[in-house]
Design a protein that fits this description.
This protein is an alpha+beta fold. Among the domains are: about 5-130, no CATH class; about 255-393, 2-Layer Sandwich (Heat Shock Protein 90). The chain is built from 12 helices and 5 strands. The longest helix is centred in the middle third of the chain and has 86 residues, at about 135-220. The relative contact order is 0.06.
Length: about 400
C-alpha cells in the first residue's frame, strides 16, 4: 500500500487485530489447560492449527488473488466453528473474525457474515453454559461495534485513496507547470533575441544597404564606387544572415504553421484538461510579421498559465483579429476573476502570481502597443492586447 498520512492508523488497526486474535486464542488454550476436559487435547491442537492458518493468511495468501483470500477466510471460519463446538471461550474469537468478514467480503456479504457468526456465537454460548442475557447481548454488542468500526475503516481507506489521487494530480500539475514555465522562459529569451536582432542589427543593415545603394545611384562612375558596391553587397549578405538568425530563433510552429495552428496545438496539449475547455478563434489565413506572431504567442501562453492556475474557469477563448494596421489579441475566461489593481500591488511587493501579466505589459510596451484588463470577482476576466502591424523589414 502506498504510504499516506493515514498509513500509521491502518497499521495500528491491523496490528491491534492480530494481537487480539492471538491473545484470545491463547486464552482458549489456557482455559483448556487449567480446566481440563476430555476434549482439551483436541482444543489445544485445533488452536495451534487456527493460529497457523491465521499466520498463513498474514504472510500473503490473501493478497495473491481474491479466490485465495475467500478460501482462507472459509477455512478459518470452519476451524473456529469446530473450536466453539468444543469450548465456550472460543466464542470470543468471533470479535476479530467480524473485522475479517467486513474487510474481505464485498458489499453486504460482510455484514451478513457478521450476523451469521453472531448467531453461531450466541447459540454456542447457550448450549455450553445455558441461555443468559450476557451470552446474547455480548455478541450482539460486539457485532454492532465491529460494524461501526469497519464502516469507519472503509471511510478512512476511501478518503486516503482520494487524497492520494489528488496529491498525484497536484504533483503532476506542478511538474507540468514547471516544465511549461521553463519552456516558456527559454522560448521567451529566444524570441527576445530574435526581436532585438530584427529591430537593431537587421534594420541597421537594411538602412546601410539602402544608403549605399542611393550613393551608388548618385555617382555610378565616381571614385571609390567599387568599394561602395562591395559595402552594399556585404551589408545585403549580412542582412540575409541576420534574418536567418531571426527565423531560427523564432518558434518552429510559427514559421511552419502560423500562430493559429500553434495556439490550437497548445490548446489540445498543454492547456487541455477535464475541467477546462479552450477555444481558439484565429484564422489560418491571418498575415502577421513573425516577431508580432511570437509576441502574441508568448502573451497568450502567459495569460493561459494564469487562467489554469488561478481562474478556476470552465471555458477560455483566444481570439486574434486584424485590420489594416492593427492586430488585437483577446484572452477571456468565465472564471472567478481578480482585481487588476491588487495584482499590480502584489507585483510591487515581490509576489510571483502577477509575473505573467507584468511580462505581457513589458512585451507590449516594447512593441508600442496597449494592454487592457477587464476583470471582476466571479465574472471572469478578459485580457486584450493591441499592436501596430509593420512589415517584416
Amino acid at each position: 500500500m502506498t504510504h499516506t498520512a493515514l498509513t500509521p492508523v491502518f497499521v495500528g488497526l491491523r496490528t491491534g487485530l492480530h494481537v487480539v486474535f492471538v491473545a484470545l486464542t491463547v486464552l482458549v488454550v489456557v482455559r483448556a489447560v487449567v480446566s481440563p476436559t476430555p476434549s482439551s487435547g483436541a482444543v489445544i491442537v485445533l488452536c495451534v492449527i487456527l493460529l497457523a492458518t491465521y499466520a498463513l493468511g498474514g504472510l500473503g495468501v490473501r493478497s495473491s488473488f481474491r479466490g485465495a483470500g475467500l478460501l482462507w477466510l472459509l477455512v478459518l471460519s470452519v476451524e473456529w466453528i469446530a473450536l466453539v463446538w468444543l469450548i465456550p471461550e472460543a466464542a470470543y474469537l468471533v470479535f476479530p473474525l467480524f473485522f475479517l468478514y467486513l474487510h474481505l467480503l464485498p458489499g453486504w456479504w460482510g455484514p451478513l457474515a457478521v450476523l451469521a457468526a453472531t448467531a453461531l456465537a450466541i447459540v454456542a454460548l447457550g448450549l455450553h453454559g445455558g441461555w443468559t442475557v450476557g451470552g446474547i447481548v455480548g455478541p450482539l454488542v460486539g457485532a454492532g461495534v465491529a460494524i461501526l468500526i469497519g464502516l469507519g475503516y472503509r471511510s478512512l481507506a476511501r478518503e486516503s485513496q482520494e487524497r492520494e489521487a489528488l496529491m498525484a494530480e497536484l504533483i503532476a500539475t506542478r511538474d507540468q507547470l514547471a516544465e511549461t514555465e521553463h519552456e516558456s522562459g527559454v522560448l521567451a529569451e529566444r524570441a527576445r533575441l530574435a526581436r532585438e536582432i530584427h529591430d537593431t542589427v537587421a534594420q541597421g543593415l537594411s538602412s546601410i544597404q539602402m544608403l549605399l545603394h542611393a550613393a551608388e545611384r548618385e555617382a555610378p562612375d565616381g571614385p571609390g564606387v567599387e568599394y561602395v558596391r562591395l559595402a552594399r553587397e556585404t551589408a545585403a549578405t549580412n542582412l540575409v544572415d541576420a534574418r536567418r538568425f531571426v527565423r531560427e530563433l523564432t518558434p518552429a510552429a510559427l514559421v511552419d504553421q502560423g500562430i493559429g495552428a500553434a495556439l490550437r496545438r497548445l490548446a489540445e496539449t498543454q492547456w487541455s484538461s477535464d475541467s477546462l475547455d479552450v477555444h481558439v478563434r484565429v484564422s489560418d489565413a491571418i498575415d502577421l510579421p513573425i516577431h508580432v506572431q511570437t509576441a502574441l504567442l508568448r502573451i497568450a501562453q502567459g495569460a493561459m498559465a494564469n487562467v489554469m492556475q488561478h481562474a478556476d474557469a470552465r471555458n477560455a477563448t483566444i481570439t486574434i483579429d486584424r485590420d489594416a494596421d492593427t492586430v488585437r489579441l483577446t484572452i477571456s475566461d468565465d472564471g472567478r476573476g481578480f482585481d487588476p489593481a491588487g495584482v499590480a500591488v502584489d507585483r510591487a511587493s515581490g509576489a510571483s502570481d502577477s509575473f505573467g501579466l507584468t511580462a505581457a505589459r513589458e512585451r507590449v510596451d516594447q512593441l508600442g502597443g496597449t494592454l487592457s484588463i477587464d476583470a471582476a470577482s466571479d465574472h471572469g476576466s478578459t485580457v486584450s492586447v493591441e499592436l501596430k502591424v509593420e512589415g517584416d523589414g
